[in-house]
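We treat protein structure as text, and this decision shapes the records that our systems exchange. The tokens are whole numbers drawn from a learned vocabulary of local backbone shapes. One such record is reproduced below, unchanged from the form in which we store it:
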Amino acid sequence: MSHKLHIEKIELDIVNRELDATIKQQLQEGLIEAQKLSSLGLLVAGVAHEMNTPIGGTVISVSNADMSLNKLNEAMKQGQTKSTLESITTSIGESLALAKINLNKTAVLGAVDLCSTYINQPTLVATS
């Protein structure tokens, strides 16, 4: 009977080691997947931020141009001097130039191949 118990104990130890190895492998695979998803989330957030910054700049520039245009219309109705009108048109031109720069930045960022950016991220390797 003692010999039979000894064999069963050895078999049980083998099964427990196999179970431990399987659990460890599943945990490592889950951790690697979570790290990949986290990296992808950070990448997407970074791209969104990089695109939203010039878009926000464009909105501000166009709003400034719109306000300057309203001032120009009022100044023309009131018969303002040429220098006042030139000042307002210069402001509109500067605002539109900034909007154009920001829209070009957004267009360049939009053309970036996100797949190649993601592929060039460091690869996570499981260690035992």
